[in-house]
């Protein structure tokens, strides 16, 4: 081996160790960079040559700069982000719903329902008494007010969920654009032979953030780009082109927004509201928002409307057979009257004068002034078993079942948030263990590569001394 060959070997050592020092330095400086994956230098020996019949090496080269990356862990983290986004949004919404059904204080629908029927029992003791009749009207109005307020507040929750869609969709579209842009940058870098590790880290982080907003699937292409699609298959990113989601008002009041997927490039738009927010696909913040708006809160409203309709129908059926103090019969206590549908939102009182309360089953002229038969029948409705969705039960039991369902759902959402947050933290810790930067390890590498660099530099000095010796012989 000639002196020049020795200098060549030393040169490869200097270059390789310099690159290794650069990589270790990059790791150290990005220790707190979100989504950054630790990079490692892979060394390889330069192909040997035969000199005087012996194979001799020609130095070292950097074969690759690898990032510590686990594709399976990435997919698991995306799933965990989707679950966490869903659970957090659902729990936040349930935090607005549950207080509406709390009867821990002296107020609440359950309390006003009982007070209303109790007031009829009290009226029966003095059926002609104006003060007792006024209490009946007041308790009836409180019952109506509670029905109206809970219904309006549940509708407000739905309105809030619908309004929040705009911010989530804006975030999603911004993330899709950034992913498509990174696809192009990564493709160009890797075609030219460069390493795009940090660009891939940025894209992976964006994909995890995107999955927190909506459930997506990804597929890597041979050119290094990622295709991104919704769980039902609608494409959102193809290569360097991004599609988008948009909000489209529904035709029927209250004109809530449908989610429409616009594919990359050309292609027909698809309404994906049902598949994003369906029971099997409500992933991420977007899915949970639609699920709460279109399914969960609607189920509570439907049960509340059933209770309001039952109270109005059962009371009116008895009330219309009675006589008031003026001798009038056939009126209703609650509105609206059939064939209109009674809901918790439109329930109201039909009378405002205490004398119009029909508590007797005969006219005043025939002894109905102090007659309490109708009042007792209405009071008895509170304990009557009725055929309601879910079986035979009283109105109070039916309401209690609604309160119980809301409570169970609220607890389930809290547990889901706690569980999903714990799972996500565990995934993040696992990624940090696998791909994160350890300062102790990198500082050790810096010392190791520095020593190797000094060794290669020493080899240059040795070659230089040898060359001086040869030149001295010539002189």
UniProtKB/TrEMBL annotation:
One GO biological process term: bacterial-type flagellum assembly
Domain Flagellar hook-associated protein FlgK helical: 96-334
Gene Ontology CC: bacterial-type flagellum hook; extracellular region
Domain Flagellar basal body rod protein N-terminal: 7-36
Compartment(s) of residence: Bacterial flagellum; Secreted
Xref: Pfam families: Flg_bb_rod, Flg_bbr_C, FlgK_D1
Record bears the keyword Secreted: yes
Gene Ontology molecular function, alphabetical: structural molecule activity
Superkingdom of source: Bacteria
Keyword Secreted: yes
InterPro entries reported in the protein's UniProt record: Flag_bb_rod_N, Flg_bb/hook_C_dom, FlgK, FlgK_helical
Ranges where the Flagellar basal-body/hook protein C-terminal domain occurs: 434-472
Key words of the record: Bacterial flagellum, Cell projection, Cilium, Flagellum, Secreted
Family stated for the protein in its record: Belongs to the flagella basal body rod proteins family.
Descriptive protein name: Flagellar hook-associated protein 1
Gene name, Swiss-Prot/TrEMBL: flgK
């Amino acid at each position: 081996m000639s002196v020049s060959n020795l200098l060549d070997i030393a040169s490869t050592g200097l270059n390789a160790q310099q690159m290794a020092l650069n990589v270790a330095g990059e790791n150290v400086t990005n220790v707190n960079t979100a989504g950054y994956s630790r990079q490692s230098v892979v060394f390889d020996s330069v192909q040997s040559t035969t000199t005087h019949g012996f194979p001799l090496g020609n130095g070292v080269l950097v074969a690759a700069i690898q990032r510590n990356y686990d594709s399976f862990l990435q997919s698991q983290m995306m799933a965990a982000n989707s679950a966490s986004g869903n659970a957090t949004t659902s729990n936040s919404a349930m935090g607005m719903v549950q207080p509406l059904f709390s009867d821990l204080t002296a107020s609440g629908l359950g309390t006003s329902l009982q007070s209303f029927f109790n007031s009829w029992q009290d009226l029966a003791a003095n059926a002609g008494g104006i003060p007792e009749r006024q209490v009946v009207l007041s308790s009836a109005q409180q019952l109506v007010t509670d029905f109206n307020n809970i219904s309006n507040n549940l509708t407000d929750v739905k309105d809030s969920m619908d309004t929040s869609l705009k911010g989530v969709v804006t975030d999603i579209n911004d993330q899709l654009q950034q992913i498509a842009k990174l696809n192009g940058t990564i493709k160009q870098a890797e075609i030219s032979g460069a390493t795009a590790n940090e660009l891939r880290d940025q894209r992976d982080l964006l994909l995890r953030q995107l999955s927190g907003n909506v459930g997506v699937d990804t597929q890597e292409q041979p050119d290094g780009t990622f295709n991104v699609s919704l769980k039902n298959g609608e494409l959102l990113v193809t290569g360097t082109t991004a599609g988008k989601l948009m909000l489209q008002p529904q035709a029927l009041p209250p004109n809530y927004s449908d989610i429409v997927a616009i594919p990359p490039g050309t292609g027909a738009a698809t309404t994906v509201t049902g598949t994003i927010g369906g029971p099997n696909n409500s992933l991420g913040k977007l899915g949970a928002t639609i699920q709460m708006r279109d399914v969960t809160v609607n189920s509570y409203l439907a049960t509340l409307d059933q209770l309001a309709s039952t109270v109005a129908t059962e009371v009116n059926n008895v009330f219309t057979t009675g006589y008031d103090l003026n001798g009038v019969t056939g009126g209703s206590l609650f509105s609206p009257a059939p064939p209109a549908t009674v809901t918790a939102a439109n329930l109201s009182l039909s009378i405002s004068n205490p004398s119009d309360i029909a508590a007797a089953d005969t006219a005043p002229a025939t002894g109905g002034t102090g007659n309490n038969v109708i009042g007792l029948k209405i009071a008895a409705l509170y304990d009557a078993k009725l055929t309601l969705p879910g079986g035979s039960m009283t109105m109070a039991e039916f309401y209690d079942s609604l309160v119980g369902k809301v409570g169970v759902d609220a607890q389930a959402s809290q547990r889901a948030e706690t569980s999903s947050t714990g799972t996500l933290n565990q995934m993040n810790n696992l990624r940090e263990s696998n791909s994160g930067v350890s300062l102790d390890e990198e500082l050790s590498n810096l010392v190791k590569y520095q020593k190797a660099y000094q060794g290669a530099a020493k080899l240059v000095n040795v070659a230089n001394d040898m060359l001086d010796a040869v030149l001295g012989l010539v002189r």
